[in-house]
Amino acid sequence: MKDFKNQNNRIPQDYFFEGSEKLMEIWFKADHHNSDLRSIPRNSIVEILDKVNCQIISQLSNDFMDSYVLSESSLFISRHRIILKTCGTTFLLNALKPFLEYAKLLGFSEYQIFYSRRRFEYPACQPLAHQDFYAEIDHFDNLINVKGNAYTFGRLNDECWNLYVTEKPMMPERWDQTFEMIMMDLDLEKMRNFYRINSRDGADATRKSGIDKLFPGAVIDDFLFEPCGYSMNGLIDEDKYLTIHITPEKGFSYVSFETNYAVKDYIELIKKLLDMFGPMKFLFSLISEECSQISDGHRKLSKAYSFRNGYMRKDWQRCVVSDLDLTFAYFVCNPG
Amino acid sequence: MKDFKNQNNRIPQDYFFEGSEKLMEIWFKADHHNSDLRSIPRNSIVEILDKVNCQIISQLSNDFMDSYVLSESSLFISRHRIILKTCGTTFLLNALKPFLEYAKLLGFSEYQIFYSRRRFEYPACQPLAHQDFYAEIDHFDNLINVKGNAYTFGRLNDECWNLYVTEKPMMPERWDQTFEMIMMDLDLEKMRNFYRINSRDGADATRKSGIDKLFPGAVIDDFLFEPCGYSMNGLIDEDKYLTIHITPEKGFSYVSFETNYAVKDYIELIKKLLDMFGPMKFLFSLISEECSQISDGHRKLSKAYSFRNGYMRKDWQRCVVSDLDLTFAYFVCNPG
Asked: Tell me: the pLDDT tens digits for B86-128?
């Protein structure tokens, strides 16, 4: 941890890919009962994503949601909600203004923004506005008129996760929750499935890894990159999704899992993900609204001090911040 | 919250005093059973405090502790522990190296450091090494060989409280806990007691404000500054202390309360302090070791959503970080 500040200016010496995603979720309040964010035309979405520096790879829709697998992660658009998650060195914040402007045209003038991300391995490789969390906060402050609150969970000088959330406008109650698990330094044997040389396509990798069994009813849109790397969006039920993104390479392997489904037992889900990917380190966050069905989930997660195979909890934070219930935890595997 | 980054470069336009203290607590592990930090000679303590930019105003001792009221806050030295708390624009970190060197001479080669502080109103007025939390972390990283973990509780872009704690060496278990309550924007009527024009001396201010009734058995060393401002150290029992520091002036009024006494009911204590000082905003932190007697205190504090007179909880964080139990909360008074 010497020269912590200088670490932020490091540049990778060899090939490197930043798996850590920027994640923005915007909930809109409709001025008219027939407003629908899914009426943003596809070519406008493509233009917005151009500014972020990513492209649509495939699309999947149900009656509640349009889901897009992107060249760098995922986009979900439902009637009142946009979720954009992008990895690498994408400029996610470039999507903020055009999405807000489009939403306004469609009759959504009020909104609540959630923005979160794990620390970057190489912040200096990011667009300037993403190089540190304070720069990101400033970007929001300059673009929007609502107050946002910024938090960092975990260790500022080691593993940590940032959250920025704006004050909630008067809007209908949401029975919502988001669980995200971020895994680092993975079992390279298990990562083999996510190389083109070992799996035929996305569907093949999904089956081989067992991802298809996580939410058996989910409709899955998956993609296997050349020569390696994997993305999937799954539509579970109504506006409930899961999404998984995998950077399998040694030295910077990374897996993220995210779902807004009200999972009955998050401990069981975590165990499944640990068995599936075998990380040496992982962190998770569970955010829920007051009226979410999973409030008991926070209590149960508070008792998870360890997991089999030597995972020990390093940090645990249970919070009510900006009227949200939140649990953050960070685990490290001590083998032997 | 516009231009958050620029706010950090602000300079006060009128007279201002930074009440927010830097607080460092170091626990030492003795190499020999007769090592005692209280054998640091007084003239050496004076020299160390010179580097911090503060002076001893008075001293009070019992069989367990030497307590010093300083020109800027307080110092407590017991056999294995040093607590230094300094406000204003003092350079607290300058005391780290000389204290560690002295401790080593006396037979203490291992230690655990706790460093914490609220955000500053005017960071740009502080010594360079204290201007932001990352600079403080770097200062520790450059001076010591043990790993430290850094956390920020509350809102990075508004009210927050920073904690840096080094990994605990193998040392005897501690039944210890520290409760700190930091109050801002106080009732100016109640602040009148802490002006020389209204109170004769420290003892007079202590009685008038009711501070003498907080811990009835405590032996008190109090001081009333000219023209205003108040500091007190109280020795409760063995190595248990309380300390209160008051900046009463309108525009930047500030009160801090701290004790390591295992308080039976922290909610009652908070109510007493609110009645005594009438802040518009306050935050508190409770840190305890695993074997502290007050583990139930965290649970009780988690249920305090509000206090009478309109105090509403804005943020609450209950954590286990670096093997410490910690509760942080921030309240704001919404009058009417």
From this structure: 999 999 999 999 999 999 999 999 999 999 999 999 999 999 9
Token readout for A264 is: 């009955």
Contact A313 B321 (CB under 8 A): no
Q: Would strands A281-288 and A177-184 be described as parallel, antiparallel, or unpaired? A: antiparallel
Q: Does B129 touch chain A (CB under 8 A)?
A: no
Q: What total of structural domains would you count in chain A?
A: 1
User: For the segment B133-191, what is each residue's pLDDT rounded down to a tens digit?
Assistant: 999 999 999 999 999 999 999 999 999 999 999 998 888 777 899 999 999 999 999 99
Q: Which of A137, A149, A316 is nearest residue B319 as measured by Cβ atoms? A: A316
Residue B126: name the closest of B91, B82, B174 by CA: B91
Specify the 3-state DSSP secondary structure of B237.
strand
ipTM over 0.85: yes
* Contacts with A7 (C-beta within 8 Å, 6 or more apart), sequence order: none
A149/B133 CB distance under 8 A: no
User: The domain containing residue B267 runs over which residues?
Assistant: 4-333
Kindly list the residues from chain A whose CB atom is less than 8 angstroms away from the CB atom of residue B2: 141-142
Establish if A131 touches chain B: CB-CB under 8 angstroms. Answer: no
Q: State the CATH number of the domain containing residue B110.
A: 3.60.90.10
- Alpha-carbon distances of A61 from A36, A64, A259, B45, rounded to whole Å: 14, 8, 17, 71
What pTM was estimated for this model as a whole?
0.96
The DSSP code sequence of A20-32 is PPEEEEEEEE-SS
Residues with Cβ < 8 Å from A179, sequence gap 6 or more? A258, A259, A260, A263, A266, A269, A284, A285, A286
φ/ψ of residue A94, rounded to 5: -65, -20
Strand partners, A81: A27
B110 — contact with chain A (CB < 8 Å)? no
Instruction: Find, among B151, B134, B4, the residue nearest to A134 by Cα.
Output: B4
- Report the C-alpha gap between A309 and A292 in whole angstroms: 32
* B9–A contact, CB cutoff 8 A: no
- Whether residues B321 and A317 touch (CB distance < 8 A) is answered with yes
